[in-house]
């Protein structure tokens, strides 16, 4: 049975860090009057952590606590969710999933500009080269839900916004 969501569709924006998820997600939510959820920020705000990663020197997200925290809001619908992973979210949450993709050199420059260096920079660029997040999305969700979007230039960002906005209008008309 299809999920009924009074607040509108739930959209997941995923991809390697630096591909443009938060820029796209926040802008999309504003344009379409949806609720923007940056999962990393939510975890930080609510301290939804489970241990500490010595290698990366950062707290480890508690996937269980994050899911519990988001559940009600996701059931209501009308959310744009932004996270660099997707395998721990319940499949029933999302009506569509967009995986942002960025060319290696463009991504390298963006992450370097963000202050990443050494192993962290290399691991994130490798994550994009190996299409890790795309594979994760394809493994976890019905193939027809998962869409790749290029995110190298402001024109592509604008084009992606237009496409998703059109999809939202269609979804609303059909529900
Ligand atoms: P993420 O949330 O995936 O980590 P971001 O939205 O913070 O990524 O974007 C990282 C940087 O790259 C930021 O300075 C904005 C820029 N950027 C993102 N998408 C872009 C695009 N399609 N064209 C040009 N710049 C982009």
From TrEMBL:
<protein>
    <recommendedName>
        <fullName>Adenylate kinase isoenzyme 6 homolog</fullName>
        <ecNumber>2.7.4.3</ecNumber>
    </recommendedName>
</protein>
<keyword id="KW-0963">Cytoplasm</keyword>
<keyword id="KW-0547">Nucleotide-binding</keyword>
<keyword id="KW-0808">Transferase</keyword>
<feature type="binding site">
    <location>
        <position position="18"/>
    </location>
    <ligand>
        <name>ATP</name>
    </ligand>
</feature>
<keyword id="KW-0067">ATP-binding</keyword>
<keyword id="KW-0690">Ribosome biogenesis</keyword>
<feature type="binding site">
    <location>
        <position position="22"/>
    </location>
    <ligand>
        <name>ATP</name>
    </ligand>
</feature>
<dbReference type="InterPro" id="IPR020618">
    <property type="entry name" value="Adenyl_kinase_AK6"/>
</dbReference>
<feature type="binding site">
    <location>
        <position position="21"/>
    </location>
    <ligand>
        <name>ATP</name>
    </ligand>
</feature>
<feature type="region of interest" description="LID">
    <location>
        <begin position="113"/>
        <end position="123"/>
    </location>
</feature>
<dbReference type="InterPro" id="IPR027417">
    <property type="entry name" value="P-loop_NTPase"/>
</dbReference>
<keyword id="KW-0698">rRNA processing</keyword>
<comment type="subunit">
    <text>Monomer and homodimer. Interacts with small ribosomal subunit protein uS11. Not a structural component of 43S pre-ribosomes, but transiently interacts with them by binding to uS11.</text>
</comment>
<feature type="binding site">
    <location>
        <position position="20"/>
    </location>
    <ligand>
        <name>ATP</name>
    </ligand>
</feature>
<keyword id="KW-0539">Nucleus</keyword>
<dbReference type="Pfam" id="PF13238">
    <property type="entry name" value="AAA_18"/>
</dbReference>
<comment type="function">
    <text>Broad-specificity nucleoside monophosphate (NMP) kinase that catalyzes the reversible transfer of the terminal phosphate group between nucleoside triphosphates and monophosphates. Has also ATPase activity. Involved in the late cytoplasmic maturation steps of the 40S ribosomal particles, specifically 18S rRNA maturation. While NMP activity is not required for ribosome maturation, ATPase activity is. Associates transiently with small ribosomal subunit protein uS11. ATP hydrolysis breaks the interaction with uS11.</text>
</comment>
<feature type="region of interest" description="NMPbind">
    <location>
        <begin position="38"/>
        <end position="61"/>
    </location>
</feature>
<feature type="binding site">
    <location>
        <position position="23"/>
    </location>
    <ligand>
        <name>ATP</name>
    </ligand>
</feature>
<comment type="similarity">
    <text>Belongs to the adenylate kinase family. AK6 subfamily.</text>
</comment>
<feature type="binding site">
    <location>
        <position position="114"/>
    </location>
    <ligand>
        <name>ATP</name>
    </ligand>
</feature>
<keyword id="KW-0418">Kinase</keyword>
């Amino acid at each position: 049975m299809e999920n009924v969501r009074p607040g509108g569709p739930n959209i997941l924006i995923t991809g390697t860090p630096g591909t443009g998820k938060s820029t796209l997600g926040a802008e999309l939510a504003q344009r379409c009057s949806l609720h923007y959820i940056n999962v990393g920020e939510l975890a930080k705000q609510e301290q939804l952590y489970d241990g500490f990663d010595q290698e990366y020197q950062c707290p480890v997200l508690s996937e269980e606590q994050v899911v519990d925290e988001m559940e009600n809001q996701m059931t209501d619908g009308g959310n744009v969710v932004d996270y660099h992973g997707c395998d721990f979210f319940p499949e029933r949450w999302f009506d569509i999933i967009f995986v942002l993709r960025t060319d290696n050199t463009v991504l390298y420059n963006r992450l370097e500009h963000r202050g990443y260096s050494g192993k962290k920079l290399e691991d994130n660029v490798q994550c994009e080269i190996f299409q890790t997040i795309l594979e994760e999305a394809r493994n976890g969700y019905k193939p027809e839900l998962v869409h790749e979007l290029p995110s190298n230039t402001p024109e592509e960002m604008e084009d992606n916004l237009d496409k998703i906005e059109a999809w939202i209008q269609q979804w609303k008309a059909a529900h």
